[in-house]
Specification:
The protein has helices at residues 4-20, 24-37, 42-54, 58-71, 76-89, 97-109, 116-124, 133-146, 150-166, 170-177, 186-208. The chain is 75% helix and 0% strand. The longest helix has 23 residues, at 186-208. It has 11 helices and no strands. By secondary structure, it is mostly helical. The protein starts with a helix and ends with a helix.
């Protein structure tokens, strides 16, 4: 080899070969060698993060996912995989909600109108402790507008109703649920209507005191 960067790229290529042949531990060592020689290769940072996340090394994986995004902030693969990693790692690492939603949002915004990324982003709000329900509502409305299949549209409508309930806009949620008629969504619809009825009952009891 004639230079450190070329050496690093060679280690990276070798690491990818080892990973493709199911020798992940040896591949990880090759990627570590590549990273030591040239810490500016985003693909190497990403490969390290993937291995570490698969093996429960969450702090190390998080650092490498962030490094990859710093080097290639518009890489949709890195954005989406970081978002998915954070969804899992948030149970082990603290204060990741904001970063997770940021990644999901960026992934969704750079994806096709009716892509899976839009759905994953909208659903991610249910997983955080203090979600921005107005933002979640906007995400579901975007999905409704771009849904190609009626079942998809009605599923998104049911989710919109759920968010409206969180926003204490029960009357609007009830109106939305009246449009959800697919039998596959009957159970979810009934549960949401039950929440609305419970809210109304609690409100009445509170006012009567």
């Amino acid at each position: 080899f004639t230079g450190e960067k070329r050496d690093a790229e060679s280690f990276a290529i070798y690491g990818k070969y080892l990973r493709e042949t199911s020798n992940s531990t040896a591949a990880y060592k090759a990627f570590l060698a590549a990273d030591a020689l040239d810490p500016t290769l985003a693909s190497v940072k990403h490969q390290l993060a993937v291995y570490e996340s698969e093996n429960g090394q969450f702090p190390e994986a998080y650092a490498h996912f962030l490094d990859a995004l710093k080097l290639e902030p518009e890489n949709n693969v890195y954005i989406s995989q970081t978002a998915k990693f954070l969804m899992v790692a948030r149970t082990e690492l603290a204060n990741l909600d904001k970063k997770m939603l940021e990644c999901y949002g960026k992934w969704a915004d750079s994806s096709a109108p009716n892509s899976q990324a839009k759905w994953e982003c909208a659903k991610a709000f249910y997983s955080v402790s203090n979600p921005d329900w107005d933002e979640a509502l906007s995400r579901w409305e975007d999905i409704i507008k771009n849904s190609a299949l009626e079942l998809e549209r009605q599923t998104a409508l049911a989710n919109k109703a759920r968010v409206l309930i969180e926003l204490r806009r029960d009357d609007q949620a009830r109106e939305i649920l009246a449009k959800v008629v697919n039998e596959h969504l009957a159970e979810d619809k009934a549960k949401l209507l039950g929440v609305i009825e419970s809210d109304a009952k609690n409100k009445t009891q509170s006012e009567s005191k």
